Amino acid sequence: MEIKELTRAEEQIMQVLWQLKKGFVKDVIDVLPEPKPAYNTVSTIIRILEAKGFVGHTAFGKSHEYHPVISKEQYQNFATDKLMNGYFDNSVKRMFSYFVKKEKIDLKEADEIMKLIEKLKEK
Fold it and tell me: How many CB atoms lie within 10 A of CB 38?
């Protein structure tokens, strides 16, 4: 199945569903920050996510309990590949260098990255 890009609102709802594992619209709203969106807004976004193949549901009478069909890791892989291909010519070096230049990586993180690289070299 082809994964599609999410809008900001859809991604915010998916983040909550990934956190909850499953839930009703009310459960999703409870986790969202203030100001809380309207019930109908969240319900509509969840139905759009279901149509896009990200969410499934179990019916309990007229109520639906929703659950993620696409895992956070699957979407993370899609988004990372899109970022790498679209902005860094599929080069980890270019991406890393960008974050270093923008000062998005501190010394502690750089040290942790170096340790990961050393572990990779050992294999």
Answer: 10
Domain identity same for 58 and 82: no
Report the SS3 class of residue 66: strand
Q: Which two tokens stand for residue 1?
A: 């199945």
- What would the pLDDT profile of 1-29 be if each residue is shown by its tens digit? 689 899 999 999 999 999 999 999 999 99
Nearby residues of 44 by Cβ (< 8 Å), 6 or more positions away = none
Quick one: tokens of 64? 């639906």
Distance of CA 28 to the CA centre of its chain: 15
Residue 7: phi and psi, rounded to 5, are: -75, 170
DSSP 3-state of 58: strand
Using pLDDT thresholds of 50, 70 and 90, give the confidence band for residue 51: very high
Integer Cα distance of 35 and 33 in angstroms: 6
Q: What is the domain count for the chain? A: 2
**Domain assignment of residue 13, given as a range:** 8-68
